[in-house]
Amino acid sequence: MRSCRPCRPARRRRRVTWTAPPCRWPEVAPSLGRAAVAEGLGTFALVFFGPGAAVVQAQTGALGHLGVALVFGLSVMAVLATLGPVSGAHINPAATLALALCGQLPRAWVAPYVAAQLTGAVLAALALLALLGREGGLGVTVPAGSAAQSFGLELLLTFFLLLAALRAGRPWVVGGVVALAAAMGGPISGASMNPARSFGPALVSGIWTAHWLYWVAPALGAGLAAGVHLWLGAPARPQAPAGGSADRGASA
């Protein structure tokens, strides 16, 4: 009589759960001190190269409008790639606000980040004054038309910039959006999208024309971008099951 083989127990299938990360911005190192220094350095670089290019264009005409826009975009791209792993490379109080609203930055870190960004912007404007002089207004942002026109433009440009940053976060994406926004909105509002970028040159040059809108409009744009990002839901990626690893390509 043939004996029956024991039945094999049914294998339990491992389930792969899919979670939606709140945003794709680079992760922040646990040290607030290092992060704040990185924010100051990054904002210094942005204001030195971006408004610096605007000053060089005003003095020599060598870069052209699109050249200045490209310098802004490349500056942001380089800072994100270099300092992103240290602080997230917000280099923008509006970006810091958006990330705090998304729960990606401790609320207690907002004030130190913004203080570091403003300090870096002022120091960069002082460096531009020492090296290039006052011609070109240190790249200060002032409305070319009405304040209402520039307010609306700054709000929308900031919204699209931060929405792209929250949902993609890669240096080339964020830098590309900055260059596009500067090319389109620069002649009208200055395409600041960044209170620190406007504050440094304004403080050193003493030009405060409609300066309030370069704070209020980006703040509203940041809140709108954070709300839309959370409502849309972030791109899903697989979570590694117990004892295994998920496909890395899905979370890149």
UniProtKB/TrEMBL annotation:
Q: Which residues cross the membrane?
A: 35-56, 63-83, 113-132, 144-165, 172-192, 212-232
Membrane association type: Multi-pass membrane protein
Q: Which InterPro entries match?
A: Aquaporin-like, Aquaporin_transptr, MIP
Q: Which UniProt keywords apply?
A: Membrane, Transmembrane, Transmembrane helix, Transport
Q: Name one GO molecular function term.
A: channel activity
User: Under the cellular component aspect of Gene Ontology, which terms does the record hold?
Assistant: membrane
Q: List, alphabetically, the Pfam families matched.
A: MIP
Compartment list: Membrane
Record family assignment: Belongs to the MIP/aquaporin (TC 1.A.8) family.
PANTHER family (alphabetical): AQUAPORIN NIP1-1-RELATED, AQUAPORIN NIP2-1
Name used for this protein in its record: Aquaporin
Record lineage: Bacteria, Thermotogati, Deinococcota, Deinococci, Deinococcales
